[in-house]
Amino acid sequence: MDYRHELTFGSFITPTNANPQRVVDLAVAAEQAGLDLVTFQDHPYQPAFLDTWTLLSYAAARTSRVTLAPNVANLPLRPPAVLARSAASLDLLTDGRFELGLGAGAFWEAIEAFGGRRLTPAQAVDALREAIAVIRAVWGTGPRRVDGTYYSLRGAKIGPTAAHPIGIWLGAYKPRMLELTGAVADGWLPSIGRMKLADLRDANARIDDAAIYAGRHPSDVRRIANISGDVGPDNMDQWVDQLTQLALDLGFSTFICVGDDPTAYQLVAEQIAPRVREQVARERV
């Protein structure tokens, strides 16, 4: 299934605090190489990492073109109403260069140790659904009142309005999370290495069915892939083939390469991305 979205390419940079300036320099290098997107993981309880929201803001000020996103924001430690305002503010400050990757939570012992609430997997999915409703309410794109078990919004002032319609991309793997993605999200953001080809096909079908059941079109959900692996002159053909297959057979249209190597960013932007775009465009015609 090809959902025929425009192809984009990005980086997944480790937000280590051992050399903070290098992390920001990598974001700048990704933009200069010609990538479209820069993302950072979000683990607020991890003492070896910079705070992701602070880093996103700093990286946004050092760049001018590239889109920025958390990959993915840790909902249990980020209250959704505040998260919504933070996202809209950063989108305004960057003239529409922000997207919201969002996760239900993981590493619950660390979350609980840091003051968050431990939830079961089922509770976490329910909480995420309520959080998305709260976020959209604060953005002014959903009902103004949310009466939830985990998150509520009653009489809150709405705004600010983002510079563009911010996408909510969910990191989802299990059935209920995939169904939630199809029902309410703008993007699906898995790490490809965690899933087999058959699992990816099944997940896509589950998202599509949930979207149709919710009165949406399957193409309303952009497919975004985190992809790990070395990138070098000797394996570019392999990368081109893999990404082309993901685009044409599984509908992925955004490819985020995991790693902290600026040389790899250049190879992806200058050598791999043009060939993938060319092959996909040829097949689409």
CATH architecture: Alpha-Beta Barrel
Helix vs. strand class:
alpha/beta
**What is the CATH topology assignment?**
TIM Barrel
Number of domains: 1
How are the strands ordered across the major sheet? 3-2-1-9-8-7-6-5-4
Low-confidence spans: pLDDT under 50, at least 5 residues?
Answer: none
- State which percent range the strand residues make up: 5-15%
Described by strand count, sense and barrel closure, the largest sheet is: 9 strands, parallel
Number of H- or I-type helical stretches: 9
Task: Supply the CATH class.
Answer: Alpha Beta
Mean pLDDT over the residues = 97
Helical coverage, percent range: 40-55%
Total DSSP E strands: 9
Gross morphology is: globular
Topology order in helix (H) and strand (E) letters: EHEHEEHEHHEHEHEHEH
> How far from one another are the termini?
15 Å
User: Using only CA atoms, what is the Rg?
Assistant: 18 Å
Quick description:
This protein has helices at 20-33, 52-62, 80-93, 108-113, 121-139, 175-184, 197-213, 236-250, 262-284; strands at 8-13, 37-40, 67-70, 73-74, 100-103, 168-170, 187-188, 222-227, 252-258. With 285 residues, the chain is an alpha/beta fold.
Keywords:
285 residues; alpha/beta; TIM Barrel; 9-stranded parallel beta sheet; globular
